[in-house]
């Protein structure tokens, strides 16, 4: 399935339906479209969601950098949108994506690589790529 962007008038009404929080953010969960694997959670502003829906390339909002963050702009680990869904309360977005490379800044496919266990946190997966190769510096 190839993603198709909505028309401007349809896009505007869809964005108006989203319940952004007091900081203008909405939670966005990225899920691999064909396997169902949960990859990451991030935040989107109206502008980030609009860009994502218009271009089909996922764009988030970086709270630490206070600016738009186009997934893969520094690492090359891009997310292509297949479908976007809004939850029942309109306060969370599910992005069905095709993840190119790893999604996590630690070099893992998914950010959800630790499980709570009786003995503490259990690491489920190892990095697939050294974060230094992704960003040129160390990420914990």
UniProtKB/TrEMBL annotation:
Question: Any idea which positions bind Zn(2+)?
Answer: 88, 104, 111
Enzyme class (EC, first level)? hydrolase
Q: Which cofactor does it need?
A: Zn(2+); Mg(2+)
Please tell me one Gene Ontology term that the record gives under cellular component: cytoplasm
**Superkingdom of the source?**
Bacteria
Q: Where is the Phosphoribosyl-AMP cyclohydrolase domain?
A: 40-113
Per the record, what are the reactions this protein catalyses?
1-(5-phospho-beta-D-ribosyl)-ATP + H2O = 1-(5-phospho-beta-D-ribosyl)-5'-AMP + diphosphate + H(+); 1-(5-phospho-beta-D-ribosyl)-5'-AMP + H2O = 1-(5-phospho-beta-D-ribosyl)-5-[(5-phospho-beta-D-ribosylamino)methylideneamino]imidazole-4-carboxamide
Where, subcellularly, is it found?
A: Cytoplasm
A Pfam family matched by this chain, by name?
PRA-CH
Q: What does the note accompanying the cofactor annotation read?
A: Binds 1 zinc ion per subunit. Binds 1 Mg(2+) ion per subunit.
Quaternary structure note: Homodimer.
What HAMAP family does its record include? HisI
The similarity comment for this entry is: In the C-terminal section; belongs to the PRA-PH family.
Q: What is this protein called?
A: Phosphoribosyl-AMP cyclohydrolase
Which lineage ranks, top first, belong to the organism behind this chain?
A: Bacteria, Pseudomonadati, Pseudomonadota, Alphaproteobacteria, Acetobacterales
